[in-house]
Amino acid sequence: MIFCEKLLFLHVPKAAGSSLTQVLLERLPRPTYYTHPEDFYEGRDDGVIHLPGGAHETLAEAGEIIASYGFELSDLGVILGVVRNPYALEVSRYFYLRTANPYDIGYNQALALTSDFETFALKSKPHGWLKRPIESYFTLDGEVPPNMRILRMEHLLEDLNAALETVALPPVENLPATNTSDHGHFIDYYTPRAEKSVFERYRWLFDQGFYQRIDPKQLVGTQTGGMAPSADSTIQSGSMVSPEELAAPLILLAHDASTDVRARIIGALLADVDERTQAEALGALSLSPGLVAALGHNSTDSEKAEVAASLLFGANEEARRQVVAALLHNATTAEKIRAIESVFYSADSAARTEAALALLKGLDEDAMAATTAPPEL
After folding, report:
1. Domain 231-370: which topology?
2. pTM of the model
3. Cβ-count burial of 216 within 10 angstroms (0-12 exposed, 13-18 middle, 19+ buried)?
4. Cα 71 to the chain's mean position, in Å?
5. Domain coordinates in residue numbering, the chain
6. Which of 14, 40, 47, 300 has the lowest CB atom count within 10 Å?
């Protein structure tokens, strides 16, 4: 999001937010504040004050942030947010996530990389999961503030300039095209099931009269575009598989599979590729330690040990240490002991020592004593 004394702009995902961010940062009066993830924006000496954040704050979240800098939502001249045809938005989101941008690693990206559009429409999560339904960008306590200007993407430049005029800011001549994705017309990707899912997710926009629902009778019964390679084809392709392609099904498994299924499929994913690719795949996972931790979430001792063993077999030492540390974050004593046993399967003595020390940190004396003897391998 961006704010100054005159204006607040909320970056609704896949609704021309990158284009508007670029334009507003160039012309808003200073000081102007810009929230974004760390290392996301190359700072310049342009009077913009960079704040750590998620870039896609809701209206309520934005209110809390600007209050800490002496601003109130009700005092701002105008609050800007953009709406987009939900059917087009979801198709755009799907194809954008298939570009595998490392900033977007997570469940939705993995689903887009391994599924067709219908599956993505049915199973994907809203941006920010359940905390950010579309209306959260435009309402407070269920009401649209009087100074909120909702811009329509279909005539964005006209709406933007009308809003800027209310706070005596000069008009914008054109908007740059940024963060675009290559795909056909959105209607070509919808089945009745996909349409229903998207309608329910964005129902607020339909109820407010911004867009009309597509007649499901006009839609095809089968998917006509946006097909993605299956998880099976990813596994079969051996050493040609990229780390991103291997990471994608692992992310999905962390959310949707039972723990015993997770362990078996992870083992299969890593067994048929060369050692270098194994290490790269595990390295890709280490970009998101919380993801690996999710693999062991709520699993039993034996299941977690099996997952750890599958992940660790054949990996290089650094990847092994990173995965174990993430997997066993906040694990119980028994779970840590079982994982320590797994570490000994293919590690050299130095790796065993380092991994064991990391895993044993915080264990009580009885637990330490239980691990002094080498496990039966």
Report:
1. MgtE N-terminal fold (1.25.60)
2. 0.63
3. middle
4. 30
5. 2-216, 231-370
6. 47
